[in-house]
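[Automated response] Your request has been received and processed.

Submitted sequence:
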Amino acid sequence: MKIVQITNLYPPFVAGGAEIYVENLVRILSSDKNEVYVITNIPGKRFDDSRVINLNKRNSDILTSLLLPNPLIYRKIKKILAQLKPDIVHVHNIHISLSTAAIFAAKDFLLAVTVHDFYLFCPTLRFMYEDGKVCELDKCINCVHKYYTSEIMKRWGHFKFLSVLLKSGPLCSSIYKIRKKQMEKLIHLIDKFICPNKSQKPMLERIGIPANKITVLPYTSDFELKEITLPGKKYLGYAGGLIKEKGVHVLLKALSMLPEDIKLLIAGDGVYRDELVQLSKDLGIYERVQFMGKLGRHKMRNFYDMIHILVVPSLWPEVLGIVGLEAMASGKAVIGSTIGGIPDWIEDGVNGFLVPPDSPDLIAEKTKILFNTDRLIHKFGLNGQKKFINEFSPDIHKGKIMGLYREIFHGHHIN
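Generated structure:
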């Protein structure tokens, strides 16, 4: 089968969770005698792999935010697809560098879209109110005003007068209507929406996407299973971006409630780093926290060997949390929030513990249970590896994604 993966960013130049997944997907599909190509758009970068096609085009933030296709990117993708004639086009993240041109250009082909975030449906990407509660889809215009005002101030300082215009109710309403109309067009063009977690499906149905267009298929990881090793000293670990929604400040508060011999390793970077460093000082735990910065893929494998427990304290609906799959493959116990896709891979009391978001006391309590119960960390680690093999391994994922591609292909020809 000839398959084209379209993604706004692609390793080695960017390596977030979605990009890591796409790279893994290309690898496992290519191992099954499929002809796989990648279309991406990272201006000024060069890929050694001839199957990775870089558009090398500048994109418009304004067009992207309004879900309008960039005409230059649209024409280039359309031309490439006409030459390749793929059986399936699989689109991933489209914001930042691609715009909805990726979807409109693929409208003459069988088309799947993985919902790595909620950009198509929400201007903030996160389906969350400012107070941290999950969105009920009832305040879209409020978010349109706040989001576009802040983005204009941040990105286009010389257009600050536009942020004043956005205080106008009619203008916000017009922007919202443009996005909504474009979203409806896009939904019609897409044959299958792929949700990495179960909680996304009802959210997409509420937006108006037919249930038969939605399939739940979690990520996979290229981390190989290995013998469980535990460090001599007691270490918690966090891996991911340092932004408020990730809840790292909650983990720091939990650490302050734990005995002093328990320390924390933080792998990642972001705009919230300085505040987290200051918070660790204010809590009196600065000497117990090591900010390691963003680690490459090889160093991440070593990172899991350095910790006993991975904590995923997210406050927003994580799409899945690919670090959780890496931790399971590495045989680590996990503690995570009961939100988004995290409960899809943490089985409470089996391979880890689930706690409500923003619950530092419960994170501390579960950490004590793990460290104080004989061999429980090791037991949870083994259970996690079994769960990874049975539900998230590359072989399991390859079978499911190829089955989905065939379903789209045969369903189209039957109809």
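Summary generated for your ticket: The chain has 15 helices and 13 strands. The radius of gyration is 22 Å.
If you did not submit this request, please reply to this message.
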